[in-house]
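input
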Amino acid sequence: MDSTLYSTSTSTPTLLTLPAELRLQIYSYVLGPSQPLLLSTYCGHNTWTSPPLSKTCSLLRNETSHLHFLNHEFIYDLRSPLDDG
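output
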């Protein structure tokens, strides 16, 4: 038997070798719904951070960044420290 005939059929698929449509479906399950994110200029920091999945490689960052913004509610606090005075 020719061993090269069987070597290509036994490769294990990875996330990056799946079709893009399937990867996007997986990302939507992984990222899922979340709590509203407060973006504040008042306190000097935000509660928002990039999802860990987007930090693994540039391809995943590019494919997941728009999903993160579509699936979250962003709350902007534009108060100034002078407003409390």
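quick obs: The chain has a mean pLDDT of 73.
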